[in-house]
TrEMBL record:
Leader peptide range in chain numbering: none
Highest rank taxon of the organism: Bacteria
Annotated protein name in UniProt: Cell wall-associated polypeptide CWBP200
Amino acid sequence: MTDAAGNLCWSGQYDTFGKLQGQTVAGAAKRQGAQYQQPLRYAGQYQDDESGLHYNLFRYYEPEVGRFTTQDPIGLEGGLNLYAYVMNPLTWVDPLGLAGCQSVNAKHIFSW
C-alpha cells in the first residue's frame, strides 16, 4: 500500500494460501502506539478482525487451512470441492468467493 506520493506505507508477505506471514510498516519504529492497520488481504479479501477470517463478499475464507468456511453458493458450478479456494493459488484468484479465474500472468492484479 502506498500513500498519495507513491511512498510505501504497508506491505504484506503471505504463504501460498493467503496466511499473512509478516508485514512491513514504513515508519513504525517512529510511531507511538499501534502500527498502521489496513483490512486488505490476499487476492482482494478483507480481514475480519473479530473472526480472523477473510471476507470475499459471498463467503468467508480461512487462511489457516486454505479453504472457505461455507459451501460455494453457486454449488457444483464452481467445481466438485465446494470449499476449495482455487485450483492453483499462484495463478488463479477468486475475489468474490464464487468461482476462480486464471490470472493473465504472475504479475496480473485482478481488477473489477
